[in-house]
Each structure stands twice: as structure tokens, then as C-alpha cells.
Amino acid sequence: TKRTTTTRAQQHPGQRILYAIHFKLLIMQIETQLKELRLHGMSRSWQILQETRRHHELSLSEGLELLLGAEQDNRSGKRFDRLLKNAGFRYKASIEELNTDPSRGIDRSLIAELSLGNYLTKGEAVLISGASGAGKSFLASALGHHACAQGYRVAYYNLQKLLLRTKMSRIDGSIYKLMEKLSKIELLILDDFGLTHLEQQQRMDLMEIIEDRHSRHSTIIASQLPVASWYDVIGEETIADAILDRLVHTAYRIELKGESLRKKR
Questions:
Q1: Which stretches does DSSP call E strand in 91-179?
Q2: Which residue has the higher pLDDT, 29 or 192?
């Protein structure tokens, strides 16, 4: 009995070493599999747990919940960055940065309502008007950034450049693909509407864009001109009626006032 006890005591340190080696190999295998599966959020969280030795303190369900939460946060952050990059905003802006002084014509309660995103789920429009430098593009960008944070796909265009793009797309035969892409964007921002009167094909292209999005996806239009003048800018009665009928009646309107913010800066 003494001999057996002594032998086990002598083997015990070796067993601990073998166990340590086996555990190290298991840890390395887990890390490799997380990377191969591109679970980068889980991989970073797992490394932190190892470094802080917190994995000994957690149950299986607690550890799994922590790792899954880290992966979800990582993917949400990457999606947000990707949405921002693809949107092509004119300004890096946020709703929190907006100057909501009543003298500027911005209703805080309206901004709070828009920030909830209900207009996006309903496919409603937001029409922003005001003089040059009043902050129209910044406001549109802020709403767009917030929509990206809520997981919506957004695209920001200068209207004249977009209409030039549709013209070129008709020449190279990619117009159908472009229109299909525009119809599926969950929030389309058209800036600088009304700088010039529209030509016939531009009217038709704008009409097609608005028609494809009507009651399905939201559109923000920013213009130096008051909405009452948009009819004349579009130019042709039938098309102007059709476009404005799909935009104006259920739209949120924001008319910015005051001195140019560029001049103040």
C-alpha cells in the first residue's frame, strides 16, 4: 500500500504537466477554429477571457452568452461602418450635433420623432428647404447617419450628379441595373434639388425613381427653393403633378431659417 501511494504521488506532477499541455492545445484549437470561422468578435473576447483568467469564473452558459454578445456587437459595428462607407454622405453629422434653436425652424419634437425611424418603415418622405448655408445638407446627413445606425441602407446623392449618372447609364446600357439599385435603397437622400430646371429625360428619370420608391422606401430631398416652387423647376405639368403627388402629401417638412451657418463660421 505504501509503495502504491508513493508511486501515485510521484506520478501526480507528470499528470499535471500532461493535463496542462492538453489544455493548452485545446485552447489553441479553439482560437484557430474561431479565426477560421471568422468569428472575430468571439475570438477577441475569448483572448481577453484567457488573459484575465475570467473563463474559470464563468459557467458554460455565462461564457457562451458573453462570447455571442461580443460577436453580435462586432458584426453590428462592422455593418454600421460598411453602411456609412456605402452611403457617401456629404458631411459626417449626427442628430446630437444639430442646432435645434427654434429660430432656425427646427422643431425638436419632429427631430425626436424622425429619430425613432417610423418614417423609414412607412416609406415616407422628408422635405428640407432653406437658403444656401442654412444647414440642409448637414441635417440630411445627420438623419442619414442615424438611419445607418438603425441598420438601414442609405445613399446620398447630389441630384444633378445622379441625373448625369442616369444619362450615362442609358448610353452604356446599365440604366436598368442603376434604377433597380436605387429602388431598393431604404433611404435615398437627394441634395441640391432645384439648382437648374430639369430637361425632359431628367424629369422622366426622376419620376421613375420616385415612383419605384413610393410607399416602399423613404426619400429625403433638400432644396434651396420652397416646396411651392418645385412644380416650376420640374417643368412639365403632368410629370410635376405625378412626382409631387407622391412626395408632398404624406411628407415631413422642415423649412430652415436664419443666417448662413457658413458665414457664421
A1: 126-129, 154-158
A2: 192
